[in-house]
Every structure is written in structure tokens, then in C-alpha cells.
Amino acid sequence: MAQKKVVVLPGDDEAPQTVYAAMEVMRALEVDLEFIEFPTGESWVRGETEKTVRAAIDASDSTLFGSTSGKTGGIGYLRWGRKTYANVRPCRYMKGFKSPLANPEGIDFVIVRENLEDLYLGLEGPLSTLAPLHLSSRVLRAELDTAERGIYAIKVITERNTRNIAHFACKLAIRRKAEGHPGKVTCTSKYNMLRESDGLFRQIVEEVVTGYPGLKYEQFIIDDFARRVVQSSHDLDVVVMPNLYGDIMSDAAAGTIGGLGVAPSGCYGDDYAYFESVHGTAPDIKGMGIINPTATMLSAVMMLDYLGLREKSKRFENAIRKVYAAKKQLTADQGGNARTADFTEAVIANL
Ligand code: ATP
Q: Binning pLDDT at 50, 70 and 90, where does residue 140 land?
């Protein structure tokens, strides 16, 4: 079988240090992958590098992405170009993570965030352009005053994309059930207020989940869900939600187990997936050598799984688990004083 190819986009500010750390571990693991590595955003030539990157992405099996503050391009192509509609954000506590909760042991659920639509189409404009439409709100039972100075933003929920993400969540819940999880899909959105858009999302998800006989289904309004993430997240398994709520709630969820330094993510489409941490580029700690690479390492673990390198991914994950359990080489965000390089070395030593 031909060797699989992975594009590596280190990203901007301090994010590349986490990507380089993950690469070091994968090299130590001797993973059978060809890496096509691009420079950081600083030396990115707009247009030109982007063209090369797109071609490389198209010729690859996956991408490992460091976060971008705008200098590194390609993310739009990875997401919308490759239609990676399911953003999977696991929230799994490991012994040694610096959680603010009294009892974080056993927290293990996955947020499946819709990745392509909702408010993230970026369609905004002056209210006055809506005047010819004579829009009225069903909830407020009043016409929109387009003479007011202001801006609208368009939120789009399509039946097709919602169906895709719902099936994705169900298949994930079935795989998890085989590993001992409850086999439950939770849907959350603001369906009581946004009855048409979030209402459609809720309706489609429920319809899809009930077509999977082995799965349980529950739904919560997003504000209620926010409380549950803090108070009773041990009860969650797979949670599916629209884009904006997923963006916000996955940061909150990360906060309950130990923060952004330990929160991985993967974005999956039907024929491609890329992997990146939940966190951004951490510009405030740029050049300090203290960024926690765990989130990117765990994203790389997800990538190895996706590429079918299960034995390597298990070894990688277990090594990270051991470093946290030992609590000796932890970075500052986890209450330790190890540097990025020390942590990475400790993971490699535990492979
Ligand atoms: P974005 O808008 O791209 O999400 P941001 O600046 O809002 O970026 P982050 O870059 O995620 O957010 O950083 C938020 C805070 O968390 C910063 O103080 C940053 O230093 C810290 N942080 C983020 N990731 C890590 C990490 N891996 N290790 C340690 N601290 C981190």
C-alpha cells in the first residue's frame, strides 16, 4: 500500500511550537507517513503559497494544522473546500489535568460541532438592505425596523448539512458504545427561540438518531446545556450542535477538564479530515517556550487513528497519559514549571 501523506501547516505565533513538538513524538514513534511541511505564517506569500498548499492538501490524506491568526492561509480551503462538516472536539479528563472541578475523574464526552454554516458564513450587512423584504419576527410578532442604523448577520441551517452531521454523531456514538460508553446522542441548540433555524436542526437530528435503534436520544436548550457541562458532564456521551454554540461550548468544556492546553480537535468530511487544537495561536506567550503542546499532540493522536495507525496512536496517547499521571513534567498552564521541550521529551521517554 502506498505511504500516506500528511500536510503540516505549523501556523502562527506560538502555535508552531506545539506542531513541532507533536512532529518530534511522531518521528520518535517512527510513524509510516510522509510529511509535507510548510513554513509558518510569517513567510507565507499570499496567493502563491496558498496555491501550493491547496495542491498539497488535494494530494494528501490529512493535514495537521497549527492555529492561525490570519497569516497562514489554507484553513478556508481545508474547511469549505474539502467540506469538513464535522468538527469533533473530545472533552476527556486525564489524571493530572488541572481541572477546577472537584470530581473531574470520568468526564469523557465529545462535542460534534457543525463546521460549515450557521453564522460562520460571514454574511453581514447594513439593515437598510433588508428593507424591500418587509421581514417580521414570528417570535416578537413585529416588523423589523430597517430604518434603524445597524447590521444584520445571516444564520443558515440546511437540512442536508444537519443530516450529515447527525449521521456522523450517530456513527461516532455507536463506535463509542462498542467501547463501553452509553450510546447516547444529545442535541442542543436554541430551538425554543430560533424555532425555524435551530428548530430545524433539532428536528433533523432527532429524526436521524431515532433511525439508529441502538442509540438513546436527549435534547437540551443551549443555556441549560451550558449549565450541564459544568455541573453534570459525566452524563454526556456525544453532543451535536450548530457551529457557533459548538465553538463557545467546546472552549467552556475544555475549561472544565484543564483548559485550552489539553483540548484537541479534528474536522471530518466524507473524504478528508484535518486536525488542530481547539486553542488559538497564544500570541501572549510567543517565544517563551512554555506553550503546552498536549492539545496538538492529542489532535495528532486523532489523526493517526483516522489514518488507521491505531497501534501508534495508542502508544502516543498512553505516553501523554503517563506524563500527566506522574505530574513531574507539566507546563505552567497545568501547574508545573516544565517547558514545552521538557514535556515533549517526557512524552518521548514514555513511548
Ligand atoms: P483565537 O481567537 O485564535 O482562539 P485567542 O488569542 O483568543 O485566539 P488563544 O490563542 O486560544 O486565544 O489563547 C487564549 C489564552 O490561552 C492565552 O492566554 C494563551 O496564552 C492561552 N493558551 C492557549 N493555548 C495554550 C496552550 N496550548 N498552552 C498554554 N496556554 C495556552
A: low
